[in-house]
Amino acid sequence: MHKLDPRRYRQTARTAIGDPVLQGALANLQHRLKTATAEAYQALAEGPGLRQIAHDIRRRAIGNLDTLLSELAERITQNGGRVFFAADADEAVTHCLDIARRHGVKLAVKGKSMVTEEIGLNPALAAAGIEPVETDLGEYIVQLAGERPSHIIAPAVHKTRRQIGELFARKLGIAFTDDPPTLTLAARRALREKFLAADMGISGVNLACAETGHMAVLSNEGNIRMSTTLPRVHVAFMGMERIAHRLVDHDILIRLLCRGASAQKMAGYVSYIGGPARPGQSDGPQEFHLIIVDNGRSRILADQTFREILYCIRCAACLNVCPVYGKIGGYPYGFAYSGPVGAVVTPLMTGINRAADLCQGETLCGACRQACPVDIDIPRMLLALRAKLAAGDRDWDVVPAHPAEARLFDFWAWIMGRRRRYDAALSAARLLQRLLPRENGLLRRLPPPLSGWTESRDMPPVAPQSFLQRKRKRGK
Ligand code: SF4
Predict the structure, then answer these.
(1) What pLDDT, in 10s, does the model give residues 310-335?
(2) pLDDT by residue (tens digit) across 123-173?
(3) Nearby residues of 339 by Cβ (< 8 Å), 6 or more positions away
């Protein structure tokens, strides 16, 4: 099992970069989806400007979260469902375990849900003697392999067909094959047994609608429908920000979510869930629970600088274009969320100092914002996180990450403040650089504290004359 810890970013990233199989898989993913997503936005009937409309829809919803959530809870309760607001991961997990105990649950089938990854639900279920079975094919593969999802939408993107074939042969006892339809059929057979035997279905929520009191859950495999209707109890987990006000807003966001996630016009299966089965209905659970998870989101909501990250609808379009994700994959981010969105959300949820490398590792190229279906300005928030790491911030309990670097920049600013100081510094540098190793006219290694600069690149030496000196000489 990959240990989730954003403090291992550099070490895990280095391993990922050295893995040729992973490099091929990531390049393939980005190649397939990057252009296709941009084209899908262009092909929207309303044009790509719909992304800005969606941004405003999300801004208004996040600005009115309290009223929208109570409206949703009221409607679900009217429909016979039960709603629980969990302040943190522990409360959310404990509530789910209580429901499971009340119903004597031994087996739970799960639809894909990043929020249950975030709160660590599967290990807690297993520790309580309940077998959690992931039913999304990608999630099922990583669960069988004892791994974690490495992409928000495509959890097993890091695995080749051959690896999956070997895994299925080992775990499901079938003859080895790397033929995708045969492998899918094997998973389907194994999962069908689980669906029929499960006492509890667990799902995430892609987007709820306050006006109608329903939640949309999307899949391309039909597994969500089975997980949410076959077992007698259904528990849905929802991050508290995943809500739209009106049905018309909800519709726009779902259309954009499908385009951002996989360049599809619409997911294969869209389930609208609002409560348990009504009397006389043959399908649906006897009991429906919605657990709305805060887990640090209120803190983000209260900060105008970072509130915008709550507009995220977890489509993963930013991962599919990010040059950093395209090289290191999902594991180095060390939390449920990876890529550019993970580089903002993870520090805010798990500690900015603890996850310092995530925001420092991104390139600020802006591709994530261009790909985002709700036009979230991720680079702005990455810079804001870096500023907090540089200067410290009491509200977020941040201590300056590199105080020596800050002093170095103060010193540099002092030098740059006067021409004479700058010239003197250049002269000193010209003398000192004679002691440093060179190759092809470039400096190979700078001494500490500048050594990090030459760890992966050479440095041009200071020119023998400054531009001004040359200009003066030529003028003469
Ligand atoms: S930040 Fe935007 S692109 Fe990235 S997952 Fe969220 S909604 Fe999708």
Answers:
(1) 999 999 999 999 999 999 999 999 99
(2) 999 999 999 999 999 999 999 999 988 888 889 988 999 999 999 999 999
(3) 152, 316, 318, 319, 322, 324, 325, 330, 333, 368
**Residue whose CA is closest, atom 2 of ligand 1?**
372
Q: Which CATH number fits domain 44-295: 3.40.50.620, 3.40.50.10990, 3.40.50.150, 3.40.50.10420?
A: 3.40.50.10420
Q: Give the sign of the dihedral formed by CA 161, CA 330, CA 269, CA 51.
A: negative
Please tell me the distance between residue 322's alpha carbon and the centre of ligand 1 in angstroms.
Answer: 11
Closest atom of ligand 1 to 378 CA is 1
- Sheet bearing 214-219, strands edge to edge: 243-244, 207-209, 214-219, 269-273
Q: How far apart, in whole angstroms, are the C-alpha atoms of residue 191 and residue 183?
A: 12
Cα–Cα dist 234/236, whole Å: 6
φ, ψ (nearest 5 deg) of residue 347 = -60, -40
* Ligand 1 atom at minimal distance to the Cα of residue 368: 3
Ligand 1 probe mutation, 318, 344, 362, 370, most atoms within 8 A of CB: 318
Q: Exposure string (b/e) for 249-281, b if CB count within 10 Å is 16 or more?
A: bbebbbbbbbbbbbbbeebeeebebbbbbeeee
CA of 316 to the centre of ligand 1 (A): 5
CA distances from 444 to 14, 69, 425, 437, 464 (A): 21, 58, 21, 6, 18
**Three-class secondary structure assignment of 401-448:** CCHHHHHHHHHHHHHHCCHHHHHHHHHHHHHHHHHCCEECCEECCCCC
Three-class SS state of 291 = strand
Measure 376 CA to ligand 1 centroid, in angstroms: 7
CA 244 – ligand 1 centroid, Å: 16
Q: Within the chain, which residue ranges are assigned CATH 3.40.50.10420?
A: 44-295
| Lookup: tokens for 285 | 């659970």
Between CA 261 and CA 37 the distance in angstroms is: 8
Residues in contact with ligand 1 by the CB-under-6-Å rule are 260, 312-318, 341, 371-374, 376, 378
- What residues contact residue 148 under an 8 Å CB cut-off, 6+ apart? 1, 2, 4, 117, 142, 331
* Both tokens assigned to 268: 């294969």
Closest residue CA from atom 4 of ligand 1: 318
What residue owns the CA closest to ligand 1's atom 6? 312
Unique residue bearing structure tokens 């420092």: 360
Shortest-distance atom of ligand 1 to CA 319: 4
Between strands 269-273 and 214-219, the pairing is antiparallel
% of residues, the chain, pLDDT over 70: 99
> 241 C-alpha vs ligand 1 centroid, how far in Å?
13
pLDDT of residue 357: 95
